[in-house]
Amino acid sequence: MLRREEDAETAGPALVGFIVARNVGNAVTRNAVRRRLRHLARGHVDRLPPGSLLVVRANPRAGEARPDDLAADLESALDRLLRPASKGRR
Q1: Does the pLDDT of residue 17 top 90, yes or no?
Q2: Interhelix angle for 27-42 vs 67-82, to 10°?
Q3: Which of 77, 90, 73, 87 lies closest to 1 in space, CA to CA?
Q4: How far apart are CA 23 and CA 20, in angstroms?
């Protein structure tokens, strides 16, 4: 996740983009995965800092994943991303 170089008052809303490569499946499958991810991400955009940029990349198994598994994976990734950094981490 990146934060744009703006102060908090002028920063726009968080933006989310999606990368769904050909190894996920054919065009129909890729578009379905992208739509599912977009729908799931809408519920989490308010957790992101204003002005941040997030890119979600679907791995090849996303094409065959059940919707609840995809939702759990996205939520887990966002939880890890937004977790405060511990003092021992660099």
Answers
A1: yes
A2: 50
A3: 77
A4: 8
- Contact between residue 60 and residue 20 where contact means Cβ atoms under 8 Å apart: no
> Which residue reads 């170089």 in tokens?
5
> 72: which 2 tokens?
């759990």
Give Cβ neighbours of residue 74 (< 8 Å, ≥ 6 apart). 37, 40, 41, 44, 56
**Per-chain mean pLDDT for the chain:** 87
HEC string for the chain: CEECCCCCCCCCCCEEEEEECHHHCCHHHHHHHHHHHHHHHHCCHHHCCCCEEEEEEECHHHHCCCHHHHHHHHHHHHHHHHCCCCCCCC
Mean pLDDT of 72-85: 90
Sheet holding 15-20, edge to edge: 2-3, 52-58, 15-20
